[in-house]
Amino acid sequence: MKGKRTDLGQANCGIARALQIIGDWWSLLIVREAFGGKQRFGEFQKSLGLAKNILSSRLKKLVEEGIFTIEPDPESALSHRYVLTAKGEQLYIVLIALWQWGEENCFEPGELNVAMVDTPNGQPLTKLRLLAQDGRVLGPGNFRVAPKPSGSSRAGN
After folding, report:
1. Domains of the chain by start residue, with CATH
2. Which of 4, 105, 116, 136 is an S-S bond match for 132, by CB 3.0 to 4.6 Å?
């Protein structure tokens, strides 16, 4: 018997709240496919091989959470398209970070036969780095959670 998933929606942690929305692999793979140009239910279903009921459930949640909007399909009056919102497009950095981590840690040398490249010139992407506000590169031991100064609502403000 499956246990009920813990609700992370009220956690005082940005990671936990993000995982509440996009924490299962199907959701991120749907977003990945959207970045690749997929917008229709059938396109997602065909490319992912995902059961229709699961795909429907994930898309519904992604729409409810503002990752996608539903728009009329100009090619068919009977269907619609799932279009990434600005909020959804911000996930590009998460997908690239996962790609780079996976590329480095999940393949044997020479096994991966594709690369993530920039569109204008086809050059491989530079490895992402975490930078301090003063431009220093930060490593795993160089950051922590701390109370925000009063008056700031988001990181970087």
Report:
1. 14-88 (1.10.10.10), 92-138 (no CATH)
2. 136
